[in-house]
Specification:
283 residues; three-stranded antiparallel sheet; two-stranded antiparallel sheet
Length: 283
Amino acid sequence: MTDTRSPQLEDGFVRIANELMLAILKAPFTGRQQKVIFAIIQKTYGYGKKVDDVSASQIGALCGLSRTHVTATLNQLFSMKVIHKEPGVYGSLVGMNKDYSKWLFASTDSVLVYQSGTSTDSVQGVPKSTFASTDSVQVDSTDSVHTKDNLPKENLQKKKPCASAGAFAQFWAAYPKKKSKVQAEKAFSKINPSEQLLGAMLASIGRAKTSEDWTKSDGQFIPYPATWLNQRRWEDEDGTTTNAADAWWSLAGFASVYEAENAGCTQWIAHQWRNGKRMEAHA
């Protein structure tokens, strides 16, 4: 007897805004990236959540990818600002960045490819967007073909030249908290900044040095350099102190964002904290 499948909404469904779905469909994601994106959507929106603590193996089981491929793809999507990703208990706290105007796509000529167009044309409420041509977007393929996902490390390093041989030395000299240098070098190497980006990073450090968060308590709340790099803190808005009473770290009971992060509290799990302490989970 034939087993006829008949999926029902009563057994669970994924609720996602049409605008976000169309943005995902229009974007030049590789097949592997799109699989991971929809797995994240299923684990979050499928259960009425914005973020979920999930391991790479769990995502791989959902979309038929190996753990190593999922890990690499998650890092790609995070660097492209398509997803949010923070360290979690079981893996990573991941969730979609719904502001698709901030998504970045690499091309041969420019890093910023996906951007809102000036045309009034739209599809179902989604602004007309500009993408790189198909020639400039690397398409996912089999493991035997070198693609953006499986290029040898030496080739990736050649494609993205470092600012200079002494770039990390400049960063290390400028950063006030000289802790965990090995981890900082690894984080810096992953970013491998251009001269322009290195300049922006050093300028951001210079501004942060004069901020209240970095000067009070003898610099106790200055993040470790590796943390600063991994969280791309140079992209924070000018001024590291937020005075808004409803800031996530304030609602969690901390005096500043740095105090919260030093305690292990991040924006994505701040709801689990009260008065500066993590609440016990109740079954």
